[in-house]
Specification:
83% helix
Length: 202
């Protein structure tokens, strides 16, 4: 069982890495929507399969790798902090959990309307010096109102599709390993029966 979990964990990381790589490469070669180039499928998938801590570690590693190999301009700390919080919350809500409409709606709506202001707060904390005389409340109000007018639908689509895709991937992976485990047990049982039959024949 332990060996099986290790193999499954490694395979999960490989799947997530492929998704992350495709997310970074596709916008370079094709014009795609925000739901594609800003998707969080890989992080949600790791959080679902391996837990919030693994989701956070994966977020940190992928951020440093992608932003230091020519696909970015270096790690922005306020962006990374938001991604860490996001990964932790998604992992807490979905690790080894079955699909539940209440949890799904809570995650999508909460991520869209409650978590998003955190990104503005972090930006203000790290960049207040370039915002002139604008106060924290003024900045939060103006950006959140603008977000409610224009940007919230993209965020909602990202969470809504990301959770479903990640859940389907986890479900498929679980089904594959469950079938492998059943086959292993069947083979073991047949082996025991064959051994017993040979013993009886002597």
């Amino acid at each position: 069982m332990k060996k099986r979990n290790i193999i499954k964990g490694i395979l999960s990381l490989i799947i997530a890495a492929v998704i992350t790589a495709l997310t970074a490469i596709i916008p370079i070669v094709a014009s795609v929507g925000k739901a594609v180039y800003a998707n969080n499928v890989a992080v949600i998938f790791i959080g679902m399969e391996l837990g919030p801590a693994a989701g956070i570690v994966y977020t940190i590693l992928s951020s440093f790798i992608l932003n230091n190999i020519g696909m970015g301009s270096g790690v922005l700390l306020y962006v990374l902090l938001f991604q860490i919080v996001e990964a932790g919350l998604l992992g807490l809500l979905w690790h080894k959990k079955r699909m539940h409409m209440g949890r799904y709606l809570l995650t999508v709506i909460g991520g869209t309307f409650l978590l998003k202001p955190l990104s503005y707060m972090l930006f203000y904390i790290f960049n207040s010096s370039i915002l002139g005389d604008m106060t924290f409340l003024e900045y939060m109000k103006s950006n959140y109102l603008l977000y409610l007018q224009n940007g919230w639908t993209d965020t909602l689509i990202i969470y809504a599709t990301g959770i479903i895709i990640a859940y389907i991937l986890q479900y498929i992976l679980d089904m594959i390993f469950e079938k492998m485990e059943k086959r292993r047990k069947t083979n073991e049982k047949e082996g025991i029966n064959c051994s017993a039959h040979r013993a009886d024949s002597y």
